[in-house]
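Sat 14:20. Reprocessing the chain from the morning session after the first attempt stalled halfway. Input below, unchanged.
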Amino acid sequence: MSDTNGVIPPLELHSLQGKPVQLSDYRGQVLLIVNTASACGFTPQYQGLEELYQRYRERGFAVLAFPCNQFGQQEPGSAADIAMFCSSRFQVSFPIFDKVEVNGPNTDPLFAFLKKAAPGLLGTSAIKWNFTKFLVDREGKVVARYASAHTPQDMAGDIENLL
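Finished this time. Tokens:
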């Protein structure tokens, strides 16, 4: 990926319904980008993510969720299955995108950028598990990476500082 001065490049994403979405549609917002799964021990974090979204969305904050089936095959369902699960179990109203790969040769370009901009523990770029979170400021710069065990509530102060 070419040098973008640390700012996420313009990318086309795909909604869970398969519709193209421009990442630039979120320009000027603080973003929390998360790889998710429906059958993971961390899946209850959907509730905390929704709470953050409801608390801060009027101030220019969005959660962007990207289902991923690379960790323990914990997101095996179709787009319709994922949508039904998230809405019925957690009343998720933030954007959920099409299933992606976050590691390996088919890594989604957004996650390739995020991992390079915010390496993990000991400088590793690989995402270790579901619910790894990346906090992005209003200018599109990645300011933090959080491991799966960090709950959404743990990030509230960091989000408030960027709003």
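The first strand starts at residue 12 and ends at 14.
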